[in-house]
């Protein structure tokens, strides 16, 4: 078995409305699911992705109203990457970020690819990465109704960056337990890949031996999920992870996919998630994200849940 790449990344926002405005209007991503945190249904869980919400394209946010400032440190998913088709797209985004007063750096090469580092309004650390010279896991498709021209749109998730105190511990989990391959190094980063490789299947690890653990808050990343084919394969992964001595959640039914959670040796939360059944399970593809979607096991609490949430209009004319 091989993990197929990045499935999704989940982060924290303190304001769902502002988050929605930035990621749909400025970033041009599609809201493919407006639902709730199944473990705490009084908070929104928003999923932004490509045109259909394909696995490997989902950037998700839990809304925690009182989330404070993030103090960066180790034991963290320190940066999330978003894929675009070309180097030309990065030039478009450079200008777009200037127009929208988005904090950004200069375009520069990282590990043989051109990239653009930026931050969202809550300080979320993000990198746009060009797929111009990329080969490997196929990207998704930018949404044709986006605020961004299709040729420049976000097509999926790129490498996740981990900051840890001891790279050797995380490397052992990635390579010996999860089957990643060590691909190379650049600057202070070590690169690992899985499956078909490429930008959609990489983890970049940075070591800070004396660093203090990150204090998470708004704009921090909660966990990263990796792709598995189906539930049968997920069960086999559970056996492998359990045999290696890592406490885990057991299989969890998230309705849109099934999951397994565990913490790797530097305490970063990893999830393995199935590719299906997907976000069109309970909504028409043309109307994804327009209304509050609840899994069947929460539907009987809809009235109570809706009353606990701040109204968020995501309808599209």
Automatic annotation (TrEMBL):
Domain VOC: 5-131, 156-275
CDD domains to which the protein is assigned, alphabetical: PcpA_C_like
PROSITE patterns linked: VOC (PS51819)
InterPro entries hit by this protein: Extradiol_RC_dioxygenase, Glyas_Bleomycin-R_OHBP_Dase, Glyas_Fos-R_dOase_dom, VOC_core
Gene that produces this protein: mhqA
A single GO molecular function term of this UniProt record: dioxygenase activity
Protein name: Putative ring-cleaving dioxygenase MhqA
Alphabetized Gene3D superfamilies for the sequence: 2,3-Dihydroxybiphenyl 1,2-Dioxygenase, domain 1
Residues making up the signal peptide according to the UniProt record: none
Pfam families named among the record's database cross-references: Glyoxalase
Keyword annotations of the record: Dioxygenase, Oxidoreductase
Source organism superkingdom: Bacteria
